[in-house]
Amino acid sequence: MSGTQESGAPLLRVSDLHVHFVAHDRFNNERTARALNGVSLQIHRGQIFGLVGETGAGKSLTAHAVMQLLREPARLVRGAIHFEGQDLAQLTEDDMNSLRGDRIAMVVQSPKTSLDPLTRVGEQIARIHRVHRKASEAQAREKALQMLRAVGIPDPESRAQAWPHELSGGMAQRVLIAMALVNDAQLIIADEPSTGLDVTVQAQILDLLRVTVRTRQMASLLITHDLGVVAQYCDQVGVMFAGSLVEAGPVAEVFTRPRHPYTRHLLDSSPDRIVLGKSQTRAGTAPDLYNLPPGCPYQNRCTRVQDVCRDHLMDLPEDTRHGVRCHFPETA
Amino acid sequence: MISTLYLVLRRAVLSLPILLGVLLFTFMLVRVGNNDPVGMLAGPTAGANEINAIRAAYKLDQPVLAQFVEYVRLVFRGDFGTSWLSGKPVLDELLLRLPATLELVLLGSFVGGLVGVWAGMRSALHANRRFDHWSRFLSLLGFGMPTIFLGLALIFVFFFLLEWAPPPMGRIDLMINSPKLVTGSYLVDALIAGDKAAALSAAGRLVLPCLVVAIVFAAPLIKQTRAIALDVMASDYVRYARAAGLPKPMVRRMVWRNSSVPVLTYGATELTALFGAASVLELIFSWGGVSQFGLTAILKGDFAVVQGYVLLMSVIAIVVFAITDLLIVKLEPRAAAGAR
Amino acid sequence: MNAPSTLAMHQSPAAVGQLHRRIYSIARSTPTGTVGLAIISVFALLALLAPWITQFDPVRPFPNSVLTGPGAQFLLGTDGNGMDVLSRTIYGARYAFGIAVPVLLFGLIVGVPIGLYAGYRGGWVDEITLRVMDAIRVFPSIILALAIVSATGQSLANVVLVIGMLDVPVFARLVRAEVLALRAGGFVEAAVNAGNPTWRILFVHLLPNCIRGAMAQMPIRMAWAVRVSATLAFIGVGIQVPTPEWGAMIRQGADYMISGEWWVSIVPGVALVTLIIGFSMLGDGLEELLDPRRQKGSR
């Protein structure tokens, strides 16, 4: 699982991201949700960073924020997203748009519905290449075939003529990966790329992702709620809860010696883990993002909570190997 | 090619029972009612014998189903019966007036369709901004206006107040001779014959009623197109296209193309309804079209005409839907797979 | 935002203050719906209070004042029989509501159970119902209404019945679609497995869940009913002059449009259009309120 050197600057460096939702409920009252509360992470070349957490923790939101795809009512209110020396949060929409699909690409959860139903698959890959690299039609077509081959789709010439609804889930997902790679993207953000696929197909897709990342020395942000996937495929992991990244570090470390009570809770709850010591979590549900209390979002479920936890949420220490946002983390 | 032909034939065959059903319904409807054509035909001074003789001659003394079977048999031979009011064959009467209605409906829906779809699309793409609010307001207005009022109001404004439009009495100035019959449309025929005066007059008279048709057609279309486009814009594939950095014009084209099929389907249903609405318009403008003719026939109880008219309307509806289906198959790869 | 002042103003129990605030919020979130409701209320009021607020008897002719323009004596003029247009128009509201409301009730009472049952049963019952409903829909409605009323006798009751019948497929289809959606979610299966008798499932379980979708359609169907009945009356079916019904009045005035006595048609016409738009706006407003997707600021 090595071969991932953390030498040099990270390819992607997210610093203190804050995203707010300003919504109006059906009676026109204004409500603000603090959907992301200071998310910081780094991904180096050749690495796969897994982002885990329950539904609603903000994983997909982080991905969308990095891609600058936030739409009203979601707003980026603070933070920086450094990629290849630029702060994406400061770029114009046009500049950002030229990065999307070119240097940074995304692979999403439901591949079949994410493809344009009225365009043949090969053309969909080709046009991304044409748009960003100003290639000719013939060049783009050739490149599309190349990519189909690279992602392991047999008989690419005839497959390229297929309509999206004719493909299986796994095949469609490979097409999305082909679309992501066609312009030699440096960063692939994969949002639950294998959820919903058959187990064997899941493994194939994730294997493909890993091989691609390693051989091209790209980076990938892999979002999933499946700890097993993280354990098997990721180098680094970040744990999210209620909009905060509460713990981050090398997978092996975080999973064997979790420091945040929520991480421990997640690991304990996973069906195929052995129970590690005494749980430090009370039963409960995810907090309401519109009414987050000040301080640590975990305060109402943590058994180790103290007054300071209710007042002040500490920042995730940057540049630490294994960081945790807790006043009373577990020591090794 | 073969497959599309097959689809068309299949559709035609499947429509037959619907046609028959509709026909039967109409058949019974007109006979069940209070209208008694015999009295009308015989005149007020006829005696009982005469009445019975007429009844027998028109086979009205037979049970309804027998009459129906006889009617259908004749229809297959091209005989749609005779109008009791005019004495002429129904088919001829209907076909004589059909071009007038077609002229109106097709032209009006063409203009209304273009405007409606364009406005609806633009509204969706610039949702909740000024254009959107205006077009939705106008759509609401158009929706609300019953054809009767719209027609009369426009006549009042453009004919009476502004004196721009010609009097709403027919398709051409009474003083000008109608052009030689080729298509049945005065405008087209006048142009073909090179008769400038007639063409101008016919065109002038077309403006107001076509305007009404266009408004009636466009209003619901704006609303529906907007809703459809918004749905498409919120879809996974549009969001993904944005995530892939596709430029705005390309995304917009995607939205257009993916909206076209549902919009077309909706437009087709609206179009068939339009033929019915045209009947009132034709009354107001003394257009002399087939819808007006059918309307009068219903009011006067001219059975054969009513049946023929209903049959004609149903056939038109079927043709419209068949053409729509053909277009859909061309545009939508999923349709060919049999998926609905 | 205004909450503190509202509560302070009404020194009433908290519950009432909450209600005021809620209504105010609802009203603010759909300006369209609110305006629509206001329009309908005004007309409803006019209809109710007609005998007391009209200046003249709507069917009383003034033979010396035939076709007089709007002026001091007859605020909105008189028609071809010398009857006061304003009074007739106000009374016309009675006919509008008198048709729209029973039509809606008929459409609901007949259409909703049909939709519930067809969606619940599925199979060939559903298929046949669907075909019949579609057949009714395919027919150009004006023609159908006309034909039936013509055939069965021209009375108000018949008009109501016929137009109501045309509403039945609309509601049936709507409700059926909702039931199908509920079935897909396993809702129906659960109710059946719990041993509920059919009628209970239909009316106690399914109905409340389906009524939401139907609610936005109700004012729209009422708009349509007003429109169709006026058109029928215009053609000369169902309502006889001198009944002060808007459609009939418009017909009467149509001949005078060309000669310049515009008020005979335009006044009832404006009333007609305004009421129809009022219903449409209410329908739009309800749609906005009830469709969770259309909440402003929802993801």
How would you summarize the topology of this molecule?
The complex is a heterotrimer of chains A (about 325), B (about 350) and C (about 300).
Chain A: E1 12-24, E2 30-43, E3 48-53, H1 59-66, E4 74-83, E5 86-87, H2 93-99, E6 104-107, H3 111-114, H4 121-133, H5 137-150, H6 156-159, H7 169-181, E7 187-191, H8 199-216, E8 219-223, H9 227-233, E9 236-241, E10 244-250, H10 251-256, H11 261-269, H12 307-311, E11 323-324
Parallel strand pairs in A: 3-8, 3-9, 6-7, 7-8
Antiparallel strand pairs in A: 1-2, 1-4, 4-5, 9-10, 10-11
Helix pairs in contact in A: 4-5, 4-7, 5-7, 7-8
Chain B: H1 2-32, H2 37-42, H3 48-57, H4 64-76, H5 90-125, H6 130-144, H7 147-161, H8 186-193, H9 196-233, H10 236-243, H11 248-284, H12 290-300, H13 303-331, H14 333-336
Chain C: H1 3-9, H2 14-29, H3 31-53, H4 85-121, H5 123-138, H6 141-152, H7 156-184, H8 187-193, H9 198-235, H10 246-257, H11 263-290
Helix pairs in contact in C: 3-4, 3-11, 4-5, 4-7, 4-9, 4-11, 5-7, 6-7, 7-9, 9-10, 9-11, 10-11
Mind explaining what this structure looks like?
The complex is a heterotrimer of chains A (332), B (340) and C (299). Chain A folds into 2 domains: 12-103 and 185-322, Rossmann fold; 110-184, no CATH class. Chain A contains 12 helices and 11 strands. Chain A has helices at residues 59-66, 93-99, 111-114, 121-133, 137-150, 156-159, 169-181, 199-216, 227-233, 251-256, 261-269, 307-311, and strands at residues 12-24, 30-43, 48-53, 74-83, 86-87, 104-107, 187-191, 219-223, 236-241, 244-250, 323-324. In chain A, the strands form 2 sheets. A 7-stranded mixed sheet of chain A has the order 6-7-8-3-9-10-11, with helices on both faces. Chain A has a 4-stranded antiparallel sheet with strand order 2-1-4-5, covered by helices on one side. In chain A, a hairpin with a 2-residue loop joins strand 9 (236-241) and strand 10. Chain B is mostly helical and 340 residues long. Helices cover 77% and strands 0% of the residues of chain B. Chain B has 14 helices and no strands. In chain B, helix 1 packs antiparallel against helix 13. Chain C is an all-alpha fold. Chain C has a domain at 95-291: MetI-like (MetI-like fold, Orthogonal Bundle), CATH 1.10.3720. In chain C, helix 3 (31-53) packs across helix 4 (85-121), helix 3 crosses helix 11 and helix 4 (85-121) runs parallel beside helix 7 (156-184). The radius of gyration of chain C is 23 Å and the shape is globular. Chain C starts with a helix and ends in a 9-residue tail after the last helix. The B-C interface holds B 18, 21-22, 26, 29-30, 32-35, 140-141, 143-149, 152-153, 155-156, 159-160, 167-168, 272-273, 275-277, 279-280, 283-284, 294-295, 298-299, 301, 306, 309-310, 313-314, 317 and C 135, 138-143, 146-148, 150-153, 223, 227, 230-231, 234-237, 247, 250-251, 253-254, 257-258, 260, 262, 265-266, 269, 272-273, 276-277, 280-281, 284.
